[in-house]
Specification:
The complex is a heterodimer of chains A (479) and B (543). Chain A has 479 residues and is mainly alpha-helical. Chain A is 75% helix and 3% strand. In chain A, strand 3 and strand 4 form a beta hairpin. Helices cover 68% and strands 3% of the residues of chain B. Chain B has helices at residues 5-21, 28-52, 85-105, 110-129, 133-142, 144-154, 159-192, 199-203, 211-228, 238-244, 247-272, 274-300, 305-325, 329-360, 371-374, 376-389, 396-411, 413-438, 454-472, 475-489, and strands at 61-69, 74-80. In chain B, helix 14 (329-360) packs antiparallel against helix 17. The radius of gyration of chain B is 22 Å and the shape is globular. The chains are: A mainly alpha (479), B mainly alpha (543). The A-B interface holds A 363, 378, 383-385, 389-390, 393-394, 396-397, 400-401, 405, 408-409, 412-413, 415-416, 419-420, 423-424, 427, 430-431, 464-465, 468-469, 472 and B 67-72, 112, 134, 137-139, 141-142, 144-145, 148-149, 152-153, 160, 164, 167-168, 171-172, 175-176, 178-179, 182-183, 185-186.
C-alpha cells in the first residue's frame, strides 16, 4: 500500500477513522452505559463532521480514472457521484436519527459508527474494479446493516428483523462468493477490465447469475426481496431509512461496475435476464404495496419497486443507462429519506407511528412536514415537478434508446399503479382529524434533514441541469 | 415587456400561491383577496397579450427561450400562436371568476383551496404555452395533482373514489404519451444529430418513422388527449369527477382541462404525425359523432343536474373533435373557436349549477320547479347560457358549431349529418333542464330563495358578455387563429378570389378554395353569420 493508494481512498479512510472516534467518544461520554439517561449531541456532530470531511475529499472531479491498490480500486466519475450520494445519505441518516435515538434510548455511538461503516461499504462497492473488492464492499455494507436492524435491544420486532436480515443476507452473500468462484473458474481473472475480453461460456453465465442473486438481494430485487418488508417493519425507523437507500446505492453501483461497464460485450447474455428481473420487480413490488396499511411496509414494497426501475437503467446499459441510474439514485436518496423523515417526527405513545391512520390530519398541525411528505411522495410516484419525474424520464429514455420498449411500457404502467398508493398516503396526511394518541416531535436536526431532502427533490425536478450534466460526464467514461 | 410576458403569466399564479401560503389559516377572506389579485393580474397580462397579438402571422409570438437541461437537449421554450392565444386568455379569465364564485361555495379550508386553484392555473397556462415536448409534459402532469386535491378534499360524498379514478385514468393515458414523447425525441436526435425536445425544431422536417411506428406514436398521443377531453368511449371517469367535484372546480375541469386535450391534438398530433392523422382521422371523427349522440342521449336521461351537464359537455366536446379531424380549414377554425365557446358556456352552466345547489342543497332536478318565479334573474341568465350551449344564432355557440358542421360537411358529409342530430338532442336535454328547474308551478319549499347577489352578477356578467360578443363579432377570435390553422393544415394562405363578393350575405359559406387580399379584415372572417336580425330566431328558445 503506497501513499497514493491512501490518498485515492481517503473518503473511505476518513469515514472509518470517524467511526472509531465516534465509538470511543460515545463510550467516554456515557460511561459505557447502553441506555444512557442523558446524552449530548456531540456524537451526532462528530459523525456529521466526519461525513463532511469525507465529502470534501470525495468532491473534486477526477480528470481521469485514478486506480489504486494495484488496479483493484478506482476513483472515477461514477465513484465520485456514488460517494457523494452515499455521504449525503449518511449525513441525513445521522441527522434524522438524533432525536429518535434519544427518545428511544438507543446507543447513539453504535448507531453512528455502524452507519458510517456501512457507508464505507457502499462507497467501496462503487469504487471496485475487481470482484474481490466488490465482495468486500458488499460485506462491509451489509454487516453493519444487520446490526442496525437489531439495534433496539428491547424490541422483539427489531431483534426478529435483525436475525431475518442476517440469515437471508448470509445466504445471499454465499451465492455471491460462489458466483465469484465460478467467474474465476471460467475466466481465470477477477479483474473487471480483464473480464471485458473473456468470451461467454456456460460457466461464466452461471457465475454471473449467482453474482446477480447476491447483488439483487441487497437491492431487494424480486424474487430476492422477501426480507425487505419484514426487516423494514421491525427495524428502528432511522435505520430503515438509511438502509433502504444505502443498500441500493451499493448494490446498483456494483451492478453498474459488473454489467454495463465490465461485461458490456456480453449484454445479449445478461440483458434479457436483468430485463426479466426488472419487470418482475416493478410488477410485484407495486402490486404488493397496494394493500399495505403500515407505512413502513408500504415504503419497503415501494423500495422494491424502485429497485425495478433502477434495473431498467442497468439492463439498458451504456452511458445512457448508467447515467440514468446515477441520476435516479440521487433523487431516490432524497425522496426516500424525506418520506421516512416525516414518519420519524411522529410518535404514538412512545412507539413508532407507522400506521397509515397515524398520518391523518398531519397538514393541520405540522403543515411543513405535510408539504415535505407531499413533495417526496409525489416524487416517488414520478410526477413533475419533483425530481422523480426526471429520474424516470431518463430511465425510460435509456430503455427506449436501447430498443427495450416492453420494459419501458411496464415501467410507466406500474408507475400509474404506484400513484394509487402514494397518493393515498398524501391524501391521508391532508384530510381527516389527527388521532389523539399521536404526537408530533419536532426536532431541529430532523427538520433540517427533512428540509434538505424535500428541497433537494424539488430542486432536481425544477433545475435538473447540473446533475444531468454531472451524471452524463461520469457515465461517458464508460464505453 | 413582451420578452418575459409569458413567464410572468405563469409566474404570477405561483407567486400568488406562495403569498397565500404565508397568510394565517383563519384569514380566509384575505387569502381569497390575495388569490384574486394574483389571478386578476394574470388576467390583465393575458388580456394584454391577446390584444398585442398580431393576427395574420402563423408562427409563435412572445417567444421565450432558455436552456433548461442543455445536457439532455430539453429547453424552456414558451410561445403563443393562433391556437393558444385565446385559450390562454380563457384560462386567465375563468380562474379569477372561480375564486370569486368559491367565496359562496367553498367555506372549509378556503385558504388551501385558493392556493391549490392558483397552482392549477399555473399548470394550465404552462400547458398552453409550452413549446418544448418535455416542458409541455411537465405542465400537463403538474396540473393533475392540484386537480386531484381539489376533487379529493373539497368534493362531494364520493369524492375520494372520483378523484383517484380521475387521476389514474388520465395518468394511464399520459404515461404512454411520455413514452411517445421520448421516442419522438430520440428519433429527432437521430435526424438532427443532437437530441432535442423542442417542438419547432422537431417539426422542421418529417420524422421519417415507419407507418406502423407513426401510428403507434400517434395513438399514444391521441389516447392521452382523448382521455383528457374526454372522447367516447374513454369518458367513464367524467360523470363521477364532474359530479363529485365542487361546482367551481367542475367549471375548470369542463371549461379548461378538457380544452387541454383538444389543444394537444391540434398542437402535437396534427403536425407531428400527418400521415397517421390522415389514416386514423375518420375513425376519430366517427368516435366524435358517437360521443355527440351518446352524450346527448344520456344527458337527456339524467336527473342529477351536474350529471346532465357533464354528459352534455361530453356531447359538445364531440363537436370540437369532429371539427379537428374533419381536417378542413373551416372546421378546425370552428373547433378552435368552439373551445373558447365551450369553456365559456359550459363553464357558465356549471357556475349556475353551483349557485342552484348552493341555494337549495339539492342536485336532482326533481327537487326544483317553477324557480323562474322566485329567481327571475337567475332564470334569465340560465336561458341565455343555455341558448349559447344550444348554438342559437346570435350567441357564440352558433358560430363555432356552424363552422364545424360546415367544414365537416365538405370532407365527412355523413358524419356532419349525424352530428346535427346531436344539435337536436342538445335542445332536448337543455330545454328539459330549463323547463324542469325554472318552469311550471313554483314548489312551496323553493319560495323565497334569494335571486342573484352582486357577487354572482359579477361572475356571470363577463361570461354573458362574451357569449354575445363572440356571437355577433367573432372576427377578432377567428382572425387570431386563422393563419396558424392554415399553416397547420398546409392550406393556401388566402381564402377568397379577389373578385368574389364580400362575405355579407346570410350564412354565406365561403368555399375553401376562394382567396382574397389577406389584409382585408372582412375576408378573414369566413362563414360568419352576418345576420343580426334576432327576431326571427328568438322564438326557438321558448318551446
Amino acid at each position: 500500500m503506497t501513499w497514493n493508494d491512501l490518498v485515492a481512498a481517503s473518503p473511505e479512510a476518513v469515514l472509518v477513522l470517524t467511526a472509531c472516534v465516534v465509538l470511543i467518544q460515545d463510550a467516554w461520554a456515557t460511561g459505557g452505559a447502553l441506555e444512557a439517561e442523558r446524552r449530548g449531541a456531540a456524537t451526532t456532530w462528530l459523525a456529521l463532521a466526519g461525513v463532511c470531511a469525507a465529502a470534501i475529499t470525495a468532491a473534486p472531479v477526477p480528470s481521469d480514472a485514478v486506480a489504486a491498490f494495484g488496479g483493484m480500486y478506482v476513483r472515477d466519475g461514477i465513484t465520485r457521484l456514488a460517494d457523494l450520494i452515499a455521504l449525503g445519505t449518511a449525513g441525513a441518516g445521522v441527522l434524522l436519527a438524533d432525536a429518535y435515538v434519544r427518545r428511544m434510548r438507543l446507543p447513539a455511538g453504535e448507531y453512528c459508527a455502524l452507519l458510517l461503516l456501512s457507508t464505507v461499504g457502499a462507497m467501496l462497492m462503487a469504487a471496485s474494479r475487481n470482484l474481490i473488492v466488490l465482495f468486500l464492499g458488499l460485506e462491509v455494507l451489509s454487516l453493519p446493516l444487520y446490526v442496525l436492524a437489531a439495534l433496539a435491544r428491547r424490541s422483539t420486532r427489531s431483534q426478529e428483523a435483525g436475525l431475518k436480515y442476517l440469515l437471508l443476507g448470509a445466504f445471499a452473500t454465499a451465492f455471491f462468493v460462489y458466483g465469484v468462484a465460478l467467474v474465476y473458474g471460467a475466466a481465470g481473472t477477477l479483474d473487471l477490465r480483464a473480464l471485458g475480453a473473456v468470451p461467454g461460456s456456460p460457466l461464466l453465465g452461471g457465475g454471473l447469475a449467482l453474482l446477480t442473486i447476491g447483488l439483487g438481494f441487497e437491492a431487494a430485487v424480486v424474487p430476492f426481496h422477501n426480507w425487505a418488508p419484514d426487516v423494514s417493519e421491525g427495524a428502528p425507523l432511522p435505520a430503515v431509512a438509511f438502509m433502504s437507500v444505502a443498500a441500493k446505492i451499493g448494490a446498483f453501483a456494483g451492478l453498474i461496475r459488473v454489467f454495463p461497464q465490465g461485461l458490456a460485450h456480453l449484454a445479449p447474455v445478461w440483458g434479457p435476464m436483468l430485463q426479466a428481473l426488472a419487470i418482475a420487480t416493478m410488477v410485484l413490488g407495486n402490486l404488493s404495496a397496494l394493500p399495505q396499511t403500515n407505512v413502513k411496509r408500504l415504503l419497503a414494497y415501494s423500495s422494491v419497486a424502485h429497485a425495478g426501475y433502477l434495473l431498467i437503467g442497468v439492463a439498458a446499459g451504456g452511458p445512457a443507462g448508467t447515467g440514468a441510474v446515477l441520476f435516479y439514485l440521487a433523487v431516490y436518496a432524497a425522496m426516500n429519506l424525506g418520506a421516512f423523515g416525516v414518519l420519524l417526527l411522529l410518535d404514538r405513545g412512545g412507539m413508532e407511528a407507522d400506521r397509515l391512520d397515524d398520518l391523518a390530519g398531519l397538514a393541520g398541525r405540522a403543515p411543513w412536514a405535510a408539504w415535505a411528505l407531499a413533495v417526496c411522495f409525489v416524487s416517488l410516484a414520478g410526477l413533475p415537478p419533483a425530481g422523480g419525474f426526471f429520474g424516470k424520464l431518463y430511465l425510460f429514455r435509456a430503455a427506449l434508446g436501447a430498443g427495450q420498449t416492453g420494459l419501458a411500457v411496464v415501467g410507466v404502467l406500474t408507475s400509474v399503479v404506484s400513484v394509487f398508493y402514494y397518493m393515498r398516503v398524501v391524501y391521508t396526511a391532508f384530510s381527516g382529524e389527527a388521532p389523539a394518541d399521536v404526537a408530533v416531535r419536532r426536532s431541529a436536526m430532523a427538520g433540517a434533514a427533512l428540509t434538505a431532502a424535500a428541497s433537494g427533490v424539488l430542486f432536481y425536478g425544477i433545475v435538473p441541469a447540473r446533475l444531468t450534466a454531472a451524471v452524463q460526464q461520469a457515465a461517458a467514461l464508460l464505453k | 415587456m413582451s420578452a418575459w410576458a409569458l413567464s410572468a403569466l405563469i409566474g404570477l399564479p405561483i407567486a400568488g400561491a406562495v403569498a397565500v401560503a404565508a397568510i394565517p389559516r383563519d384569514r380566509a377572506g384575505t387569502a381569497r383577496a390575495v388569490g384574486f389579485a394574483a389571478a386578476g393580474l394574470a388576467f390583465l397580462l393575458a388580456a394584454w397579450v391577446w390584444t398585442a397579438f398580431h393576427p395574420g402571422q402563423s408562427g409563435l409570438q412572445f417567444e421565450e427561450r432558455a436552456a433548461w437541461v442543455p445536457a439532455a437537449g430539453i429547453g424552456y421554450h414558451l410561445g403563443v400562436d393562433g391556437l393558444s392565444v385565446s385559450l390562454t386568455a380563457l384560462v386567465a379569465l375563468l380562474v379569477p371568476l372561480a375564486i370569486v364564485a368559491s367565496a359562496d361555495q367553498v367555506k372549509e379550508r378556503a385558504r388551501a383551496f385558493v392556493l391549490t386553484l392558483l397552482l392549477l392555473e399555473a399548470g394550465l397556462l404552462g400547458t398552453f404555452l409550452a413549446q418544448d415536448l418535455v416542458l409541455f409534459y411537465v405542465f400537463w402532469e403538474a396540473m393533475l395533482i392540484p386537480m386531484y386535491f381539489l376533487i379529493a378534499l373539497w368534493g362531494g360524498p364520493a369524492r375520494r373514489g372520483a378523484a383517484i379514478k380521475f387521476l389514474l385514468y388520465t395518468m394511464t393515458g399520459s404515461v404512454l404519451m411520455l413514452l411517445a414523447i421520448i421516442a419522438v425525441y430520440l428519433q429527432g436526435g437521430r435526424l438532427l444529430g443532437a437530441p432535442t425536445s423542442d417542438l419547432p425544431a422537431l417539426l422542421a422536417r418529417p420524422l421519417g418513422s415507419s407507418p406502423t411506428v407513426e401510428a403507434l406514436l400517434f395513438g399514444a398521443f391521441a389516447v392521452a388527449f382523448a382521455i383528457k377531453m374526454p372522447v367516447w368511449p374513454l369518458h367513464t371517469w367524467l360523470p363521477d369527477a364532474y359530479a363529485e367535484a365542487p361546482p367551481v372546480v367542475t367549471v375548470l375541469l369542463a371549461g379548461l382541462m378538457a380544452k387541454a386535450g383538444a389543444y394537444g391534438l391540434l398542437r402535437f398530433c396534427l403536425p407531428l404525425f400527418p400521415d397517421a392523422v390522415r389514416a386514423w382521422g375518420p375513425l376519430l371523427a366517427s368516435l366524435a359523432v358517437a360521443g355527440i349522440l351518446y352524450g346527448g342521449a344520456v344527458a337527456w336521461a339524467q336527473g342529477d343536474l351536474r350529471r346532465l351537464l357533464a354528459y352534455g359537455s361530453l356531447s359538445h366536446m364531440g363537436f370540437i373533435l369532429l371539427g379537428i379531424f374533419a381536417l378542413d380549414v373551416e372546421s378546425v377554425q370552428g373547433s378552435v373557436l368552439q373551445m373558447i365557446n365551450h369553456g365559456v358556456s359550459t363553464g357558465a352552466l356549471f357556475v349556475l349549477a353551483g349557485m342552484l345547489i348552493g341555494r337549495t342543497g339539492q342536485a336532482h332536478t326533481n327537487a326544483y320547479g317553477g324557480l323562474a318565479a322566485a329567481t327571475p334573474a337567475l332564470a334569465a341568465v340560465t336561458l341565455i347560457v343555455v341558448a349559447s350551449s344550444l348554438a342559437l344564432p346570435g350567441t357564440n355557440g352558433f358560430v363555432g358549431e356552424f363552422l364545424i358542421l360546415l367544414g365537416a360537411f365538405q370532407t365527412h358529409p355523413v358524419h356532419a349529418v349525424l352530428a346535427t342530430i346531436g344539435v337536436v338532442l342538445a335542445a332536448a336535454y337543455l330545454l328539459a333542464f330549463v323547463g324542469r328547474i325554472f318552469h311550471g308551478p313554483l314548489r312551496a319549499e323553493l319560495r323565497g330563495l334569494p335571486d342573484l347577489r352582486p357577487r354572482e352578477y359579477a361572475v356571470l356578467a363577463p361570461l354573458v358578455a362574451i357569449i354575445f360578443w363572440v356571437g355577433f363579432v367573432p372576427g377578432p377570435l377567428l382572425d387570431r387563429s386563422e393563419a396558424t390553422v392554415r399553416a397547420l393544415l398546409k392550406a393556401p394562405a388566402t381564402l377568397m378570389p379577389a373578385d368574389s363578393p364580400p362575405a355579407n350575405t346570410k350564412f354565406n359559406p365561403i368555399p375553401a378554395t376562394a382567396a382574397s387580399p389577406p389584409r382585408d379584415p372582412s375576408s378573414r372572417r369566413p362563414a360568419v353569420p352576418r345576420d343580426r336580425n334576432g327576431a326571427a330566431l328568438d322564438p326557438v328558445v321558448r318551446p
